[in-house]
Amino acid sequence: MKILVPVKRVIDYNVKVRVKADQTGVDLANVKMALNPFCEIAIEEAVRLKEAGVATEVVAVSIGAKAVQEQLRTALALGADRAIHLETELNLDSLQVAKLLAKLVAEEQPQLVILGKQAIDSDNNQTGQMLAALTGMGQGTFASKVTVNGDKVQVTREIDGGLQTVELSLPAVVSTDLRLNEPRYASLPNIMKAKKKPLDVKAADSLGVVLDSKVTTLQVTAPASRQAGVIVASVAELVEKLKHEAKVI
Ligand code: AMP
């Protein structure tokens, strides 16, 4: 069984994001970039399925500029067998990414596609669902447990107030939630080995997908900064402030 894992290069989650002065987006100059955390979980799950003898090959794919090859090497160091880079300088939205992935699914014929539930840069949470719709595959989103049984996969999903388990016929699309697993660290020998694993580069526009975006970002703003708190001297003062300043009681 082949597993395809789309992975995205995003700002490292430890970085404090700065909005550009002209509010057209986020400042990426000299910012540490990393593998999207949910994609790391997706790679880990695919590698565990391979280690358990369920999967035979794990293929990582990333769409973007040349720099995404850094994250593909990380995916290879974490245990993916080979990588595909669909190269484009365009800033693609989820539908364009899903259309490109759908073409790749047609070429590669994976039995399972495991994606992150969302990329932490744009927080779209759309690509997996769109890919399932475009390919006609079943989808198990926000997975906290994945069990492959013959030609079916059972996915336990994190939903409001509980868990739901669905069974999908393979091939299927699964998106990962935080609690699915704890990704391993890449060891130094595996980082070295990853440099020799195959990484194919293809021009994204060679796949026959019209990369016209229907979405334009109008403005990006930073959240309003919180006002400093005040320490009150008594309960009476607190009640007074809640009544007359905050006007909540
Ligand atoms: P999103 O719908 O943008 O929040 O992303 C959800 C998931 O789709 C990510 O965790 C990745 O698995 C996949 N994805 C999104 N953008 C890309 C990309 N440019 N290249 C590869 N995979 C992507």
Characterise this structure.
The protein is an alpha/beta fold and 249 residues long. It has a single domain (2-244), classed as Rossmann fold (3-Layer(aba) Sandwich), CATH 3.40.50. It is built from six helices and eleven strands. Helix 2 (68-77) crosses helix 5 and helix 3 (94-108) packs across helix 4 (127-135). It is globular and about 70 Å long. The N and C termini lie far apart (61 Å). Residues 6-8, 36, 38-39, 42, 61-64, 94, 97, 115-116, 118-119, 122, 124-128 line the site of adenosine monophosphate (AMP). The site of adenosine monophosphate has 23 residues, from helix 1, strand 4, helix 3, strand 6 and helix 4.
How would you summarize what this structure contains?
Keywords: Electron transport, Transport. The protein is α/β, with parallel strands linked by helices and 249 residues long. It has one domain: HUPs (Rossmann fold).
Keywords:
alpha/beta, Rossmann fold, binds adenosine monophosphate, 9-stranded mixed beta sheet, 249 residues, 6 helices
Instruction: Indicate the multimeric state.
Output: single chain
Main beta-sheet strand count, sense and barrel state: 9 strands, mixed
Provide the residue-averaged pLDDT. Answer: 95
Q: Beta-sheet strand percentage?
A: 25-35%
The name CATH uses for the topology is Rossmann fold
Widest sheet: strand ordering? 9-8-7-10-6-1-4-5-11
> Pairing-aware structural class of the strands and helices?
alpha/beta
Number of helices: 6
The coarse overall form would be globular
Low-confidence stretches: none
What is the chain-wise order of helices and strands?
EEEHEHEHEHEEEEHEH
How large, in whole angstroms, is the Cα Rg? 21 Å
Give the proportion of residues in helices: 25-40%
